[in-house]
Every structure is written in structure tokens, then in C-alpha cells.
């Protein structure tokens, strides 16, 4: 999941540099969603392993 977040963040940066605002915004939103899901899953896995 972290890899997908990084990929979409890089796509958003490149698209914004090239002037593709719609693609950049969509990629940034997807990167944020993937990052949030990955962090939540990481926390759940960490907490469940401790118990």
C-alpha cells in the first residue's frame, strides 16, 4: 500500500508540473487514500500482534 501511495504521489507531482490539473488532483487524492489505508492497516497489525 505504501508503494501505491508513493507511485500516485509521483504521478501527481509529474502531472502538476506538466499542467494536467485534473490528473494531478485525482492522483493526489488516490495517494492520500492509499496512505491512510496503509497506516490504518499497519496500526491494526501492530496492535493485534502485541496482544
From TrEMBL:
The keyword Transmembrane helix applies. Its main location: membrane. It is found in: Cell membrane. Keywords: Cell membrane, Membrane, Transmembrane, Transmembrane helix. Pfam families: DUF1328 (PF07043). The chain crosses the membrane at residues 29-47. It is a single-pass membrane protein. Belongs to the UPF0391 family. This is UPF0391 membrane protein GCM10009129_21190.
Amino acid at each position: 500500500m505504501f508503494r501505491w501511495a508513493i507511485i500516485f504521489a509521483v504521478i501527481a507531482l509529474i502531472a502538476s508540473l506538466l499542467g494536467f490539473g485534473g490528473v494531478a488532483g485525482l492522483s493526489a487524492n488516490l495517494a492520500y487514500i492509499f496512505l491512510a489505508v496503509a497506516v490504518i492497516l499497519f496500526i491494526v497489525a501492530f496492535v493485534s500482534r502485541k496482544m
